[in-house]
Design brief:
With 164 residues, the protein is of the alpha+beta class. The protein has two helices and eleven strands; from the N terminus they run H-H-E-E-E-E-E-E-E-E-E-E-E.
Length: 164
Amino acid sequence: MKHHSRGNLGLAGISLVVGVALTLAVQSLMPLGETAFAADAVDLSPPKSWNIADLNAMELGALPDIDWMPVESGTRRNAQTVLFEGENNVTVWDAGPAKLVFETPNTIDEFVVVLKGELILSDNDGNSTTYKQGDMFMLPIGFVGTWDMTEEYRELIVIADNGE
């Protein structure tokens, strides 16, 4: 005996159609940039403006002492606040006077804006450049050398999220 179900959706078919219809109805009523889950809401309003004075006045969250690279001299104290996380991450980072040593090549490109203090960046070939408040630079993947913060130092960093 053959059973034909043409024209008969059955309970599973009706449930599927009703589910799709309800989903489409709810989504059509939601404002642009929101999803059905509040945690997934995306703010599409114009972004907040940042300026050097506000970023320097900002209180940062303390981090554990610097232990991810050798500290040739100075303090291991550092702090940061993440301003934005997405395909690119924007962070304000702060440290006391210290000379850090990149013994192994830097693994990410970093765009840096010096917010406070002075930084002397030296490669292992003896080339060096001094950066002060308002200066900007790219620290490329592969950099090896020293990062010498001669005084209290703060920077804005933009890096691509590489999943680490």
